[in-house]
Amino acid sequence: MSENESMNEHENIDRLIDELTGELTPVHRLWSPWVRAGLWIGLLLAVAAYFSMTTDVAAMLHRLGAAADMWLSVVGSASTAILAGIAVFQLSLPDRSPRWALLPLPGAALWIGASGMGCLRVLIEPASGHIAVADPNDCFIFIVGMSIPLSIIMILMLRRAYTLRPNLTAIVGGLAVASAAATLLNFVHPFNVTISDLAVHALAITIVVSANRLLGGNLLTPAK
Amino acid sequence: MPAQRRAGARVVKLKALSSPMPKDEALDERQIADQRWSGWMAAAQSGDRAAYSSLLREIVPTIQRIARRQGVEGDHVDDVVQEVLTSIHKARHTYDPARSFTAWLTTIAQRRAIDILRRTSRHSKRERHAPLAYESYAEPGQEPDRPRDEADRARILGEAIGELSEGQREAVEHLAIRELSLAEASRLTGKSKGALKVNLRRAMKSLRSRLGGKL
User: Fold this and answer.
1) How far is CA B42 from CA A39, B83, B141, in A?
2) Does the ipTM exceed 0.90?
3) Which residue, A89, A100, A91, A208, is CA-closest to A156?
4) Nearest CA-CA distance, residue A156 and chain B, Å
5) Whether B178 contacts chain A with CB within 8 A
6) d(CA B84, CA B69)
7) A73-132, pLDDT tens digit by residue?
8) pLDDT confidence of A173, banded at 50, 70, 90?
9) Which of A189, B27, B137, B139 has the most CB atoms within 10 Å of its CB?
10) By the CB < 8 Å criterion, does A4 face chain B?
């Protein structure tokens, strides 16, 4: 770089600093990621409370109590929703480690493992799987339908942040939304743990996470 | 306001740190700078322009050092500086004064340096070192099939503008083609005047290098 070019660059930097300083306005500091994660979990609890008042909770508990894999699967999906919710608000800040994305993995592993155990149980002991069965299409519609408002809320909660990894943040946000929708599904749709049912669930969750990655990734990309 | 109080407390702490007490000597320069920058940023969040200006000017060498450590070379180092300063401006509400400012700055600077490295690597992949090919080509402007009419020029320019990044294209469209003022373009795009200027300058640089003697 010639001396003149170097001087021009330094002048450009000086000018940019003057402009940024001139444009400076007071800002409201972003709430702590823990507070925002608390709000997200509070929202999920509020929705769950609404469903518990409007659905037959005793029947749901009876169904889940029928086999260990059933309630373990619910614990897995609920903990994924909570842990991914905590992770996504950490990832939404520029100075937080991308390793926060690993936080929901234990919950997801439990969720997937318990669901797999359920499949095995139904294969070994078919009678145990025949509880009240809902149409898998209804499960699909519920997970995707429930995920739409939750995704909108999640993106609104993340938009003021400034993530340096918009795609990773969007994927973890999508996982938080999809796992929350899958957990809430237990209130309204008794489902059978057959391979076809789980395949429908997996498809719905994949669609929700991918849609969040595609739409959320763009929406969360900070303007340079 | 709490932020100002905290900033004030940091300044007091800083003054105490700069006093010649043996215990304070343990704190190295970086820690002192970090506390000073953190205080300035907290003050900037409350709208203190003097603190903000001091902060931005003082962190430039640190950003340059981070960029070089990431492998950025030559005039691209200053491109990183400009992008980091703009990013800091946009992300200033996300800084938590209870945490290290240097860590916050470093992460942003490293990320922007990687962005620049990726961008320059994409450009260099399109270029090949081919001295023979270079020798056998006519001088720019001397090619027999050089497009001369306005339609060809407009098409070539349009294609080159289309290859720019979104921010650069936006700046060219509003400021160079539509000839809007910076204030109007800033209002329309929601971007700061500084960011628009930087994008326009980069776009022009990029167009000049891409078009060479084509027009």
Assistant:
1) 25, 21, 55
2) no
3) A89
4) 16
5) no
6) 15
7) 889 999 999 999 999 999 999 989 899 999 999 999 998 888 777 767 666 665 554 444
8) very high
9) A189
10) no
Calculate the alpha carbon distances from A194 to A118, A178, A190 in Å. 8, 20, 12
Is residue B198 within 8 A of residue B189, CB to CB? The reply is no
CA dihedral B166, B172, B175, B178 (to 10 degrees): -100
Distance from CA of A106 to the nearest CA of B (A): 27
Cα dihedral sign, B172-B177-B178-B179: positive
> Which amino acid type is present at position B183?
A
CA distance linking residue B102 with residue B38, whole number of Å: 8
Which residues on A lie below 8 Å from B91 (Cβ)?
Answer: 94, 162, 222
CB contact under 8 A, A24 and B52: yes
Give dist(CA A179, CA A85) in Å, integer: 10
Nearest to A26 among B47, B85, B192 (CB): B47
Domains in chain B: ranges and CATH: 27-119 (1.10.1740.10), 149-215 (1.10.10.10)
Q: Does A2 touch chain B (CB under 8 A)?
A: no
The C-alpha R_g of chain A, in whole angstroms, comes to 22
Chain B contact for A9 (CB, 8 A cutoff): yes
Residues 6+ apart with CB under 8 A from A79: A104, A106, A107, A110, A111
Check CB contact under 8 Å for A29 and B96.
Answer: yes
Cβ–Cβ contact A159 with B under 8 A: no
Residue tagged 């929202």 (tokens): A43
B107 CB near a chain A CB, below 8 Å? yes
Which residues of chain A from 41 to 80 reach within 8 Å of chain B, CB to CB?
A: none
Distance CA A177, CA A183 (A): 10
Rounded distance, CA A46 to CA A41, Å? 9
Q: What is the pLDDT of residue A132?
A: 47
Q: Which amino acid is at B127?
A: E
Interface contact A22, partner B, CB < 8 A = yes
